[in-house]
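Per your request, structure below.
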């Protein structure tokens, strides 16, 4: 195992990369579609569905976008598989989570930087006339704000430092062991059932846009399918999440003697 002098900077570098990528992902999924950055053509100059799906340029762009999403999904799923996690733990120790977070951030960077918009293609829906051209973007903006606030709140409930791999290194340096070993059975059960704690909120961000074009349909549909397959909560998990949320709110509201679950 590498000394703390190397472990801490490596974990911090992974955190900085992930945090910066998260900011860029918010811009990619929210700010760009809400501000109309990718909308370059007038509605009357766009192709219809049949023409677009026969256009080699449109098909090439969609194929590139499909490959990018599959690349991210493949990395995210492969590195979360138990055999791969075991191998990474054997070779990287407490940096296993930090490495997973860094690779996920790099995969997202590739998606964001090489994503190919299809502005000339048809749209599933679009706000074009008043009052919808004013109120629909405003409503979507409010929904996105609420969704991202909920996402950040849920990440705090799920122990953000541990999700980012910082807590594992911190515990190791102080000789406190593995953080997961201190979790209750209810928490471990929840982690087994839920790989993506922000499923509904992220789906809101993906679909609630003023203009849903071909490339956005592809992104939203694939990630909806992926998130749906990874979401396996039951009533017991939901009760545990509710109890943890109440506990966090009590801790934030003031000093109380709250027993950990």
């Amino acid at each position: 195992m590498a000394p703390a002098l190397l472990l801490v900077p490596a974990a911090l570098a992974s955190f900085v990369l992930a945090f910066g990528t998260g900011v860029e992902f918010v811009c990619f999924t929210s700010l760009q579609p809400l501000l109309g950055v990718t909308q370059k053509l007038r509605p009357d100059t766009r192709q219809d569905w049949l023409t677009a799906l026969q256009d080699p340029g449109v098909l090439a762009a969609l194929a590139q976008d499909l490959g990018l999403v599959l690349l991210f999904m493949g990395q995210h799923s492969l590195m979360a598989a138990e055999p791969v996690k075991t191998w990474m733990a054997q070779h990287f120790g407490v940096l296993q989570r930090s490495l997973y977070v860094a690779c996920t951030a790099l995969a997202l960077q590739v998606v964001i930087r090489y994503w190919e918009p299809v502005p000339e293609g048809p749209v599933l829906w679009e706000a074009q006339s008043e009052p919808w051209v004013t109120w629909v973007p405003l409503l979507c903006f409010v929904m996105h704000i609420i969704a991202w606030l909920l996402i950040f709140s849920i990440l705090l409930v799920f122990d953000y430092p541990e999700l980012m791999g910082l807590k594992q290194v911190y515990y190791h340096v102080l000789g406190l062991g593995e953080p997961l070993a201190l979790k209750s059975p209810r928490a471990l059960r929840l982690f087994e059932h839920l790989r993506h704690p922000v499923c509904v909120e992220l789906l809101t961000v993906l679909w609630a846009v003023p203009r849903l074009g071909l490339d956005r349909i592809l992104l939203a549909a694939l990630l909806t399918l992926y998130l749906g397959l990874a979401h396996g909560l039951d009533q017991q998990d939901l009760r545990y999440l509710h109890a943890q949320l109440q506990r966090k709110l009590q801790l934030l509201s003031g000093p109380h003697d709250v027993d950990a679950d």
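Confidence is low (pLDDT under 50) at residues 257-261.

Regards,
D.
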